[in-house]
């Protein structure tokens, strides 16, 4: 499956990316590498994912609509996991998916509660936790 993971240089996005790559999915990572914390950590996380031939990385900002459109058009992802986030005051909201709905038919089908529950199950399974 082709999956876009935003925030792919982040803590959770990179861990998810590695898990998906291990399972054989194609991962298209998007991250702006912002300087909210040490960017060396982000570079190292991206480098680990880049070792997989099925990983493609884009250093772009989610507010860059033009670049984002190109990524979607070029890769035609089957799933999008949006983990890009910025703590504190931000100029734009990343929850506005109107354009994605209009242009690509993006239609989230899992509630946050269900998504978190699935993530916890996946985490427990991966680490053999009860
Ligand atoms: N870490 C946790 O314990 C935890 C717990 C619950 C929920 N979450 C949620 O999971 C998500 C990811 O958290 P994390 O811990 O991986 O954070 P993180 O800061 O490590 O990762 C977020 C990534 O998003 C990128 N980013 C931010 N704004 C961007 C933009 N405009 N365009 C492109 N990339 C952008 C950052 O560069 C960063 O690499 C967040 O929504 C967070 O609230 C995290």
Which band does the percent of strand residues land in?
Answer: 5-15%
Rg from alpha-carbon coordinates? 15 Å
End-to-end Cα distance:
28 Å
Widest sheet, order of strands: 3-2-1-4
How many E-type strands?
4
Order of helices and strands: EHEHEHEHH
Which kinds of small molecule does this entry bind, naming each only once? nicotinamide-adenine-dinucleotide
Q: Helix tally?
A: 5
CATH superfamily of the domain at 2-85: NAD(P)-binding Rossmann-like Domain
CATH architecture of the domain at 2-85: 3-Layer(aba) Sandwich
Could you say which overall geometry the principal axes of the C-alpha atoms support?
Answer: globular
- Find the structural class using helix and strand composition: alpha/beta
Largest sheet: 4 strands, parallel
Per the CATH scheme, the topology name of the domain at 2-85 is: Rossmann fold
Summarize the structure.
The protein is of the alpha/beta class and 130 residues long. It has a domain at 2-85: NAD(P)-binding Rossmann-like Domain (Rossmann fold, 3-Layer(aba) Sandwich).
Helices, strands, pairings?
Layout: E1 2-6, H1 11-22, E2 26-30, H2 39-50, E3 55-58, H3 65-75, E4 79-82, H4 98-104, H5 112-126
Parallel strand pairs: 1-2, 1-4, 2-3
Bound molecules: nicotinamide-adenine-dinucleotide.
